Amino acid sequence: MKAMADEQNNKSFTVHKAFNNLSIKDLPMLTGFVEGMLTDILLSDMYFNDLLLASEEILSNILMYSHNGALNALKIQIKCCKETSILSLTFIDDGIEFNPLQYPPPNIELSIEERKIGGLGIHLVKHLTDHIMYSRLDGKNMLTIQKFIKPF
Amino acid sequence: MMSENYSIENGKLVYKFSGRMDTTRCMDAEKSVVAALDGVTEVVFDLNGVDYIASSFLRLCGKASHKVKPGCFSIINAAPPVKKVFKIAGLAERLNLV
User: Fold this and answer.
1) Model-level pTM?
2) Which residue of A44, A147, B6, B70 sits 20 to 30 Å from the alpha carbon of A1, by its own alpha carbon?
3) What are the pLDDT digits (tens) for A71-108?
4) Are A124 and B55 an interchain contact pair (Cβ–Cβ within 8 Å)?
5) Rounded to an integer, what distance in angstroms lies between the CA atom of residue A57 and that of residue A117?
6) Which of B54, B56, B62 sits opposite A113 (nearest CB)?
7) How many Å apart are CA B31 and CA B71, to the nearest integer?
8) Do A53 and B52 touch (CB under 8 A)?
9) CA of A63: which chain B residue's CA is closest?
């Protein structure tokens, strides 16, 4: 088991898949794909849970707020890359420009319903990951989250 | 009143959740939860068996807590990974996470 873990810790791992014609009903399929990828990487439960939840929050925000009325037309690409001790997940979508890093921290004095929709999810993503980067290129949003993974 | 998900006795609703309360399951459960909240004066969400929650579940908890007076909503049997999410969101105290 340790030999397999050592090999797993050292090897690079990249997965890239594109999904088309998406709507909110496709969220379980997308999170299922992320879950499968994270399972293949043999992450400990702690990293697995954090990254799966962060991914779900990002994907649900994209599906709910990026389509600008063009239902069932969203395209999303998901890339997963593990280099030794850093795992990166990148979400690329062709929806309206949307930078989640511009959200201010949620005001915990407000009731949960009063807080800006989507803000709570982004707040969770920021605290569940070690680094987040956003860019807009060629009409696409690119959001990358990273987690530093300690070896077994 | 009993169902497979909840019981109501003397105005106290105990609603049991299980498994993964992800965005989709929360959307599916909301109608049932809102219906169960009608007319109750105390609410307990029992999270025994829940191993994952998304922000949609936090919103569902918030919605339920506003249906009763302050101090009359609580959450019990939350596993450590679930408590962690409530704490990150700053909601553990407000939602009376036991």
Assistant:
1) 0.87
2) A147
3) 666 889 999 998 888 999 999 999 989 888 887 666 65
4) yes
5) 12
6) B62
7) 23
8) yes
9) B23
Q: What is the pLDDT of residues A23-68, one digit of tens each?
A: 888 999 999 999 999 988 877 887 899 999 999 999 998 988 776 6
Which domains are assigned to chain B? 6-88 (3.30.750.24)
Residue in A45, A49, A120 closest to B55 by CB? A120
| Structural domains of chain A ordered from first start | 23-148 (3.30.565.10)
Contact A123 B52 (CB under 8 A): no
Longest dimension (CA), chain B: 35
Q: Do A57 and B54 touch (CB under 8 A)?
A: yes
Q: At what angle do helices B23-37 and B55-65 cross, to 10 degrees?
A: 10
| ipTM for the assembly | 0.90
Residue identified by tokens 């009763």 is B68
